[in-house]
User: What shape does this take?
Amino acid sequence: MTRLFALVGVIYQSAAAIILIFLLGRVLPPLAYATFSLTLASSQLLSVLMFEWLQLAGVRFLAAAAEEDAARLRSSLFGAALLSALVLLVIGGLAASIATPISTSVGFVGLALAVAQGATDLHFMVVRVSHRLGAAAFLLILRATLMVAGATAGAWFYGTANAALLGMLCAQIASLLVGQFVHTQTLQKVSRPALLDDWGSFARYGMFAAGASVLHLSVPVSIRFVVVSALGDAAPAVTAGFSMAIDLLQRPFAVLVAAIHTVNYPEVVHQFERGSADDARASVAHLLDFIICATLVMLGGLIGFLPDAGLLFVPPSILASFLQTSTGAALFYFMHCHLQSTLAIAPHLTKSATRLVVVALCQLLLVLAVAVPTQAITGAPTYVLVSAIVATAVVIVLASGPMIRFGATPRWGLVAASVAGAAFIGAFSAVPSQSPVWLIAKIVVATAIVALLAWKGRFLEAAGSSRSDL
Assistant: This one.
């Protein structure tokens, strides 16, 4: 039941992110929404840059640590987080005050949001690896609710990007305070040699792995800059529609894959470190089943229902641009999440962080190499996304070696059934919902397909008991 609650939390967080984007798209003017979108993406990039290395190192080291070692590692983690926050505030504050593509006040709020998000994510990660999956899921649901309420309230009362970002900042801080109440982090004093030794271990693995995450996150941000800088104020409706599509389709995949890792990855690390080779392959294969099938079905659902969602929630002034780019954005993020998360499982387990950086850098360079000339030649965001999809697919093929050598294989029958289900649900995009009854009927059919695949996949069971063929 705890794992089921965590998955319900995944659905809720994805829905909350989608609702937030639609609400802000309606409340904020197009240029204000574009500013909000760009600032939020930059803030998330800074948060990943300064705190992701601690998140990755914490999961990798804490999940298999004995209790006495875990207490020391937690203290070392939060000490390093405090140092990272100070560095970010000093350097980022100088950069925001000297040169920024957005206003200084918005830049400072985005900087504070990056620090709050990093601290909150780190706290929630420690709650999860402390074998409190239910508490971690509750905190994630609470944060998603507060984020929607805070950002919408700020945008509604003041109508500016800065107000919406301030609402999100307050939500992050409130979530962190509640998290401390739910699961108090008791830190112990760590000797200086032990602290430096822990930081060195975190840095050797975590910084390279986080560098790869930063490069991966830079890819959609770079695509956004390529399109927005080319279109600018000359086509605000096209820019806002593209920005909404790129925002809307990023969050569901990111939240889904992150939550699946939250549910399963600590056990995968434990099996890799303390179990047999067969146990490790079984746990990784079970994780692959979950990620591949869930993202396939989500891709089909996004493609199938985006036209209906667009007609209901997207402002008419940017609807055409949104619909033109939404399918391409969904396909790009599907490919992007598998390159970043699925193919990286084996390198993460073996701590081959340098390989992760090389793969991420190749994706960034190749995407930019095709996106910039595509935008210059066509002037269409849709073709830019298509070129990014092709470039990412090339990198996936070249980077699949470690996972193939690891030997963990998903259940191909289940994957094939997921492809068929996703294609069927995606075909709903060609059938307009002429009445609420017809829309409800499509939702019921899609829900039945998802439920059937989830039942056949038995994703919530232990890895060893769910490897039968479909």
